[in-house]
Amino acid sequence: MNPILRNVLAVLAGLIVGSVVNMGLIMISGSIIPPPEGADVTTTEGMKASIHLFQPRHFLFPFLAHALGTLAGAFLTARLAANRNSFLAIVIGIFFLIGGIAAANMIPAPNWFVVVDLFLAYLPMAWLGGRLAVGRN
Question: What band does 49 get if pLDDT is binned at 50, 70 and 90?
Answer without folding.
Answer: confident
